[in-house]
TrEMBL record:
Coiled coil: none annotated. The keyword DNA repair does not apply. The gene is Si_1. Keywords: Glycosidase, Hydrolase, Signal. It comes from the Eukaryota. One of its GO terms (molecular function) is alpha-1,4-glucosidase activity. This is SUIS protein. It comes from Chaetorhynchus papuensis (pygmy drongo).
Length: 224
């Protein structure tokens, strides 16, 4: 059995289907997946304990939290999403697949703070707050490192951010500069982009130039 899952299930820390009881099942890199409800205080406690257990096994210096939009490789849930005004609201913006739950969880899924429809944009923020609590437990009295892909207003007090999955192109090198300046306006000054690009193969000249400009990124990391 997978200990983290067993302990989380015992504490009832997962996002639930619309009935508020049945655990919502999705799929991410490992396969079938459940999603922690970081708005639940019990989940924060579980997350801090799990981070401490992992640090006891593999010592680390900080946390890099990813896929926390929340991201899902199936549409909403492996059981499907109900046809209601939350999953299919009267107005749907021109977004991916024209579905509000595309690549994420159903909008009528239940968290401690409310329905996913109302708290979706706070998922990354709630994970940031829980991760900060975990860092305080793992590194008491010490300054540590936290970086998150998903952020919200006020996140800069607790975490840094990177601009997400970019590509090894000259355009993405250029676009990273205004992207980082914008996040300073959003109150998140500790910001960077994947130097040399995340996807696709870089070239020697592109990577060399990107390393040169990347030396001035507040968060400077080659991630090609």
């Amino acid at each position: 059995p997978y200990g983290s899952y067993v302990r989380g299930t015992q504490k009832k820390v997962w996002i639930n289907e619309s009935d508020g009881v049945t655990t919502l099942l999705g799929q991410v890199w490992p396969g079938e997946t459940v999603f922690p409800d970081f708005t639940n205080p019990e989940c924060t406690s579980w997350w801090a304990d799990e981070c401490k257990l992992f640090h006891d096994t593999v010592p680390y210096d900080g946390l890099w939290i990813d896929m926390n939009e929340v991201s899902n490789f199936v549409q909403g849930s492996k059981r499907g999403c109900a046809e209601n005004d939350l999953n299919y609201p009267p107005y749907t913006p021109r977004i991916l697949d024209r579905l509000m739950y595309s690549k994420t969880v159903c909008l009528d899924a239940v968290q401690n703070w409310g329905k996913q429809y109302d708290v979706h944009n706070l998922y990354g923020y709630s994970m940031i707050l829980s991760s900060r609590k975990a860092i305080e437990k793992v590194f008491p009295g010490k300054r540590s490192f936290l970086i998150s892909r998903s952020t919200f207003a006020g996140s800069g007090k607790y975490t840094g951010h990177w601009l997400g999955d970019n590509a090894a192109t000259w355009d993405h090198l250029r676009w990273a500069i205004p992207g980082m300046l914008e996040f300073n306006l959003f109150g998140i000054p500790y910001i960077g982009a994947d130097i040399c690009g995340f996807s696709e193969n870089t070239t020697e000249e592109l990577c060399r130039r990107w390393m040169q400009v990347g030396a001035f990124y507040p968060f400077s990391r080659n991630h090609n």
